Every structure is written in C-alpha cells, then in structure tokens.
Amino acid sequence: xxxxxxxxxxxxxxxxxxxxxxxxxxxxxxxxxxxxxxxxxxxxxxxxxxxxxxxxxxxxxxxxxxxxxxxxxxxxxxxxxxxxxxxxxxxxxxxxxxxxxxxxxxxxxxxxxxxxxxxxxxxxxxxxxxxxxxxxxxxxxxxxxxxxxxxxxxxxxxxxxxxxxxxxxxxxxxxxxxxxxxxxxxxxxxxxxxxxxxxxxxxxxxxxxxxxxxxxxxxxxxxxxxxxxxxxxxxxxxxxxxxxxxxxxxxxxxxxxxxxxxxxxxxxxxxxxxxxxxxxxxxxxxxxxxxxxxxxxxxxxxxxxxxxxxxxxxxxxxxxxxxxxxxxxxxxxxxxxxxxxxxxxxxxxxxxxxxxxxxxxxxxxxxxxxxxxxxxxxxxxxxxxxxxxxxxxxxxxxxxxxxxxxxxxxxxxxxxxxxxxxxxxxxxxxxxxxxxxxxxxxxxxxxxxxxxxxxxxxxxxxxxxxxxxxxxxxxxxxxxxxxxxxxxxxxxxxxxxxxxxxxxxxxxxxxxxxxxxxxxxxxxxxxxxxxxxxxxxxxxxxxxx
Amino acid sequence: xxxxxxxxxxxxxxxxxxxxxxxxxxxxxxxxxxxxxxxxxxxxxxxxxxxxxxxxxxxxxxxxxxxxxxxxxxxxxxxxxxxxxxxxxxxxxxxxxxxxxxxxxxxxxxxxxxxxxxxxxxxxxxxxxxxxxxxxxxxxxxxxxxxxxxxxxxxxxxxxxxxxxxxxxxxxxxxxxxxxxxxxxxxxxxxxxxxxxxxxxxxxxxxxxxxxxxxxxxxxxxxxxxxxxxxxxxxxxxxxxxxxxxxxxxxxxxxxxxxxxxxxxxxxxxxxxxxx
Lengths: 545, 276
Hints:
The structure holds two protein chains of two kinds.
Chain A: E1 7-17, E2 26-36, E3 40-44, H1 51-58, E4 67-75, E5 78-79, H2 85-91, E6 96-99, H3 103-106, H4 113-124, H5 129-142, H6 148-153, H7 161-173, E7 179-183, H8 191-208, E8 211-216, H9 219-225, E9 228-233, E10 236-242, H10 243-248, H11 253-261, E11 277-290, E12 299-312, E13 316-320, H12 327-334, E14 342-347, E15 350-351, H13 357-363, E16 367-370, H14 384-394, H15 399-412, H16 429-441, E17 447-451, H17 459-476, E18 479-484, H18 487-493, E19 496-501, E20 504-510, H19 511-516, H20 521-529, H21 533-544
Parallel strand pairs in A: 3-8, 3-9, 6-7, 7-8, 13-18, 13-19, 16-17, 17-18
Antiparallel strand pairs in A: 1-2, 1-4, 4-5, 9-10, 11-12, 11-14, 14-15, 19-20
Chain B: H1 2-8, H2 11-33, H3 66-102, H4 104-119, H5 122-133, H6 137-148, H7 150-163, H8 167-174, H9 179-215, H10 226-233, H11 242-269
Helix pairs in contact in B: 1-11, 2-3, 2-11, 3-4, 3-6, 3-7, 3-9, 3-11, 4-7, 5-6, 6-9, 7-9, 8-9, 9-10, 9-11, 10-11
C-alpha cells in the first residue's frame, strides 16, 4: 500500500451531459474522486456505467454532443474542465497519458513503432534525432518487449497483441507523465498476456511512481492490481475505498452483486454423466491455405490438428483456449459452416464430416449454434419473433404455428413473449443473446454448440445467461459443446473440459480434474494467469468456512 | 419512420423532393392541360416566349407549342429514367449478388463480364445498341438500362462480400436455409440502402443519356422528349436560343432534383456518415 499523499488529480462533483435522446440525461453526475501520486485507482463498472466517458472527460476528449456541464477537474492547480485547447495539448501526453483497449486501432498502421513513440519527444521536447532513438530503445526495454531494436523498426501489424499493448504503454510513459489513464487495456488480450501486462503496469508504476487510473469491468483484475477502488453504476460512484476493504467487505448492494457475479474457479459438484456418447469427434483436422500461385508460395495454417473428443448425452463439453488456438474453427467444423479436411464427426450414427451440403441442410436441426456477438448474430432487419420462427419455417412448419412456438420459446429463455414484434436493436446485449438461444432451440436440437456465447456480456448478465443455459440443459436434455477463452466461465458450466493450444487438444478430462489438478504445463499457465485467482480462492475458502 | 424524419430534416433533400414532385405533376397533368397532340403544328414558328398568351413558352422552328412539349417531355424523361434505372438495378443486383455471395470462379466470370462492359464508354455502347436495334422508345429505354448496370453490380457485390460472413448469415446457414433464402431474405435487405441511393445517380445519368441521344437525332423522333427539342433548337441556336434553353433548364432541374433526393436518402439511411 502506498503512502497517503496529496491528491494530484481530483474530480469535484463532475457532471457530463449526454445529447438529448440518449438513455439518460447525464453520462456522469456528481462524480467526486481523487488520486494521489504513486497509487493505482481502479474504476470498475459494467458497460454503460460511464467509466470510459470519465477517462475521456479528464483528457477533454469527449465525443461531439457530450460535454462537461458542472464540476471541476483539478490537476496541478488548474481546472482542466475550463482549460484552453492549447493548455490541454500540453497536458495530454506530458502530464496525463492514456492507453486504450485495442492497441491495433490506437496505433497508426502506416508508421513504425519507434517512429510513433519518438513522435512524443519531437512534439513535446527539442531533443535531437539520435537522442530520441536512444530514448525510444530505453523505453521499449523498460516495457520488456523482446528484441527492442527490431520492435522499433516493426509496423504495428508485425507485433502480437501483447507486444502492441507494451508499445502503447511505452508511448504513454515516454514523457514520464504524472498520471496514466488505462482504459480496459487488457480486455482484448488473452489471459496469459493479460497477466503479463498487469504485472508490467504494476512494476512500472512502482518504479516510476506514476499515478494510474485503471478502468476495468473485471473484479479479478481489480483484485490483482488496485490500491484503491471506485465502483460506478449509471454514471455515479456508488462506493469507493481501499481495495482490500471494498473487495473484502463491500458495503453497497451493487458492489456486492458485482463481486458475487465473478465466477468462482472451482467447478460445481460433479454430475453423473451418461455412458451413451451422442457426438464423437475423431481425428478432425483443418488446414487453411492462402495465397500462392501454381503451388508456390502457399501459406499453410493448420487451424485444427488431429482433434478427437467425445460428448456424452446430456453433458457439457468445454473447449477452452486462447485466440488462435483453433477452438472456433473446430466449432464451425462441427456444425459444418467449415468443411473439415479429414476426420469424422459422428452424431446419432451419421458422419457429419462426409455429408453433402444438401444433407447437412436437411439434418441441421439436430445440431444448432449460438454465436458470440449478440449484435452481429441477429439480422437487424427482422423482428425478434421472425428470427426465432425462421428455423422451423425453413423446415416446413406453417408460419403461424412457428410464431406461436416462438412466443413459448421467448418465455422459456426469460423474455417477454409480447416482445416478438420488436427489432433486435431494441433489446440489450443479454436479451439479444437470449433471442439467439431461442432461435437455436426452436429447432429442438439434441446438441447445442455455443461459441463464446457469453463472452461479450457484462459479468452480471453473463451469470444470468449461464444459469439459463444450465437450466435448459436439464429441462430439454441438451448436450452442449461450450467454447470459451474464459476458464472461470468454463469451470462453472462444463462437465468435461478440453484445453486447446495451436490447434491441438493438450489436455482433456473431467472439469474438476483439469482445473483442480492440471497436468499439462499450458493448462497450469492458463490457470495461473487468471486475474484475481488468489482473491477468488480466498473468497471460496471463506464461503466454505 | 426515423428515416422519414431524418430525410425531412435536410432542406436540400426537401427542395429536391419538391422539384421532383413538380416534374411528376407536370407529367401527370400534361394530357389535361394540353389535350392536343404536342407534336402537332399549333401556330407560327419561332414565337418568343411570353409574347403570345396562347403559347406561353413560345413555339419551335416548326410552329409546335414548346410548353406542351415540355409537359409531355416530362413523361418521357421520367419514364425512361424510371424504367432504365429499374432495368439497370435489377441486372446489377442480380449479378452483384451472385458474384459476391458465391465468390471464387463464379465471381471471376461475372466480374470479367462486368469489366468488359465497363471498359467501353457507355455512351459509345449506347450508340452501338441504338444503331443495331433501332431507336423506338422501348429499345432506347432498354439500351440505356443495359449500359448502366455495371456500377450497381459492383456496389452490390462489395456489400455482399462484407455481409456474407457476418454471424447472422452463418446463423441462417446453421438453421438450414437454402442459398437463395440467404441471398434474398438475409443479405439483400441489408445490402440495399447504398444501392437505392445509387439508383438516383443511375436515374439522373439515364435522363442525360436519353437527352444526349435525342440531341444527336438518334432517339425516338415520334415522341415529345426534351432531348428532341434541344436537338431541334440546335439549328436556330444563335438567334432563337430559347428553343434549346427551355428544355435544357427542364433537364437541369430534373437531374438536380433526382440527385438531391438521392443525397437526402443517403444521409437519411446512413445517419452516422453525416456531419463528416
């Protein structure tokens, strides 16, 4: 814990107005908080809570139509809310620096990393070119990019996501700012990379004594990194205090609810599994070939390599892995959105991998898919009821009957049946995912493939959808293939787990065994990297006691 | 309904719509205001506008009423504009949809055909078609449509390429929809807005193409069209310039109206692009 010292940035009753017609009149209302040098303040909240708007308000980078209408932002004796544009330019980068969620879009794709970091010096200082180059290399070494010299010459697309985020951090820290604002900097990263970046931020903060405002939606990350925490809901701060006290003894009901929604690491008690296997995946491989001419210069990417899995009837098989592990390709092979190169996928005695397209089309109601993005997976020009009724209509159910069934399905997934006349954009993310689920269930499938089905949702909504899924599994006797990058989610719902890395299954078995006693070093590394793991374990120990 | 509201928020779009409505009203009321055949001789040739109350806009070199020809010409321009646009958009959407949806070999073949049409200047192609098939109103309309489809085809293809891998299309596939259901029911409604906007450009160009043909005396001489009138006026351009100028203004106003409506539609359908 850092020594309490004078606040270097303080927000005093800050209000930020939204344009008329938004869902509420103010993005922020009456927000007061302060941050001292040499501490990490985590701002936690769900999507729409105003946490990113707050970061942008401090930097005065608000989108058009959104403006500060009350309160002050005090930094080094100045009120940033009323500072001139020229003053703000000297504050940004030098006084307060910012890093963003997606480093790929925050970096200029046409210029090298070294160039972009060097720009910080050429804008704010009068250093010579050679001096700037030395400084850039020192910075890249500071953020521990492997091979800083070649990283400085690289273009953003030539680096991995984690390296890009390191480069962003190097750029933000170039001028030794007093405050670093990090807006969900690890959300787009894999869990192992996330752990490294969190450790890096912690370490740099200690060495450079920078104050860090760390915005996140994940209480695991908070437990990992925060000195102090502020919890936001609907544009107001509902609770703030020391990390230990907020996490250990939350006062406000919303904080309690958020912490309770963080998935625990241990699996629920083991369920009895059926001996009967419903889906057998045998030696499936898929290789992508791109480019090349007459067999020369072809780029070969093996996405799935020799995967064999079994799904018992009524069970849930989790496939976990980081981005690029081939888990989504495997899911798409199972529903034949992608044709596997070799291997067999046997469902109810039929080999899906070898069926013709027309046969797949006719048999597809036995195996259905729920997609990741609740915004992209629903046709924006169809009503919710039509979306759900579509499947049965395609397979010959009269439209009136299909619509009546859609109403029942709406009720089943916890939506208001009278909402079938609304369009997808009138629903929230969680509700849309329920529509997607209803659409998949409308064909009464025996196997459901859920591809990152809850990854885009806030934790509290995530918990609800997972609960719904577990309930439906019981009531409808569904067998589920559940694909996710989030081990905490997998631990909650899966009976069996397969861990994928570079297209191969490196470890599989009962969920309790894989999470409790991981054998493969990669599984161990994944489990180690889960943010806030210690916190989750402590909490479980307490709830058991 | 949002679209309608956003459309009427733009003054330019409203002006365009009003102008277009005036042209439409002219076309509708032509038979009622000028019950006589517009190409029949009506009076002395080359009467200046506003000099004789019987011929408000004067007469042309053969003594036909210019006002009547303008009113009847509105019918021809709108007819050719509308029908040729419908033909061009229909061919374009069909070819673009198949090329974009299937990709690969089909895409290659269809796009090479499209390029073959695009490499020829479309007015030259139009002249060839009219020279071969004759210049009745029907052939001219079809010919204008046939030379205008490549651009909408490319636009539709681009939309399909970006939409065909969206999750909602994949979802439709896992529900067991046929390709044709995916194309018509899922992708096309989402691909149409930019195509509809582009249709206004096609329509404006179609009207201009017909006028250009008529100016060269290559359009149907048996109908009262604005282009024919301009072509006639060419012979007396130095002195009685109004014979060409009046239909010229009519064409200008109509094309402007169509373009403004198109721009307004674009802003209304893609509200986020506005203000850039």
